[in-house]
Amino acid sequence: MNNLGNTKKDNATENIALDEKDIAILQLLEEDAKMTIRDLAAKLNLSATPVYERIRKMEQAGVIRQYAAIVDPSKIDKALTVLCYISLKEHGKKAGTKFIKEITSFPEVMECLNISGQFDFMLKVQVKDMLAYHEFNVNKLGELDNIRHMESVFVMSVIKATHRVVY
Amino acid sequence: MNNLGNTKKDNATENIALDEKDIAILQLLEEDAKMTIRDLAAKLNLSATPVYERIRKMEQAGVIRQYAAIVDPSKIDKALTVLCYISLKEHGKKAGTKFIKEITSFPEVMECLNISGQFDFMLKVQVKDMLAYHEFNVNKLGELDNIRHMESVFVMSVIKATHRVVY
DNA sequence: TTTGAAACGGAACATTATTCTATACTGATA
DNA sequence: TATCAGTATAGAATAATGTTCCGTTTCAAA
């Protein structure tokens, strides 16, 4: 295993130029991060060294943010996905920061986006079932004091879900 | 690097029971898939062998679906995320399948969810900027013949985004 | 207490990542 | 055109890691 990893913590901000070979490497690693450097090299008609160096540079530049194992939610008894839309009463900086701090602390919240439109935030919540979502709603969201309005949209099936952003 | 990988293609459906050690392994690999088996073993007070075997079983059972390199969209000039809500004219099986096939073929579409509520689908679209989204809208979505209504919600900032589902 | 299956530890082995050095390439300059 | 500096590359050597093997332990059922 390469130890190029551990890119998670640092917020590298440098910008680097990516050529076609870098893009090709990214596309392959997005699909299978365990692909060996030699296999990557073979696909790109290169030797191991340049591929290794390119990956290292992209990790340090923050292009590759993380290597993650993707777990199937249904296999660990988290079969229900809910999109939860929230608008706040107070929109001041202080109130917003407080809300964000609270929301991000909930492990059920996989994603929290600040959005345009009638709502302020969209949460993607992953739970066991409807009962678990109800409890999340009452015991966690219900405890927050700055929520004006809330709306839940339930995910019936996942048609497509990818982490690939390079194309 | 372990070659336990390549879990992507197979839809393993077997269900296996996970104990606390398996959960601990999953949590660590969700954060850093490059962590070595020996490091994992040290954190769990185990030797390498049982950790290796547990990972292999979870891969074969489909609990670990994939190992992915996560790329920062802004670093590859894909800075705009849009949530695109779509309702169809025809909801028959044939029409639905056709729509799904077309939608999933667009690389800009990172995610497509079949949802409850007034819309049928939510798309998460990742593009360079507003102009690129406009072109996606006109040239790709605009070519589909089964769309009744459409609404775009723009992501202003990402407060939280994780792939961790194990907790 | 006995037995069998599963989990485990430690060492040996196989594969891969990583480093090192020399060479080939590229673009700019004179 | 010739020369130079910087970068990218290949190939071999080394270090680190994944993977297998085998004997031992654990633990629950009989």
Automatic annotation (TrEMBL), chains A, B:
<dbReference type="GO" id="GO:0005829">
    <property type="term" value="C:cytosol"/>
</dbReference>
<dbReference type="InterPro" id="IPR036390">
    <property type="entry name" value="WH_DNA-bd_sf"/>
</dbReference>
<dbReference type="InterPro" id="IPR019885">
    <property type="entry name" value="Tscrpt_reg_HTH_AsnC-type_CS"/>
</dbReference>
<dbReference type="GO" id="GO:0043565">
    <property type="term" value="F:sequence-specific DNA binding"/>
</dbReference>
<keyword id="KW-0238">DNA-binding</keyword>
<dbReference type="InterPro" id="IPR000485">
    <property type="entry name" value="AsnC-type_HTH_dom"/>
</dbReference>
<feature type="domain" description="HTH asnC-type">
    <location>
        <begin position="18"/>
        <end position="79"/>
    </location>
</feature>
<dbReference type="InterPro" id="IPR019888">
    <property type="entry name" value="Tscrpt_reg_AsnC-like"/>
</dbReference>
<protein>
    <submittedName>
        <fullName>Lrp/AsnC family leucine-responsive transcriptional regulator</fullName>
    </submittedName>
</protein>
<dbReference type="Pfam" id="PF13412">
    <property type="entry name" value="HTH_24"/>
</dbReference>
<keyword id="KW-0804">Transcription</keyword>
<dbReference type="InterPro" id="IPR019887">
    <property type="entry name" value="Tscrpt_reg_AsnC/Lrp_C"/>
</dbReference>
<dbReference type="GO" id="GO:0043200">
    <property type="term" value="P:response to amino acid"/>
</dbReference>
<keyword id="KW-0805">Transcription regulation</keyword>
<dbReference type="Pfam" id="PF01037">
    <property type="entry name" value="AsnC_trans_reg"/>
</dbReference>
<dbReference type="InterPro" id="IPR036388">
    <property type="entry name" value="WH-like_DNA-bd_sf"/>
</dbReference>
<dbReference type="GO" id="GO:0006355">
    <property type="term" value="P:regulation of DNA-templated transcription"/>
</dbReference>
<dbReference type="InterPro" id="IPR011008">
    <property type="entry name" value="Dimeric_a/b-barrel"/>
</dbReference>
<dbReference type="InterPro" id="IPR011991">
    <property type="entry name" value="ArsR-like_HTH"/>
</dbReference>
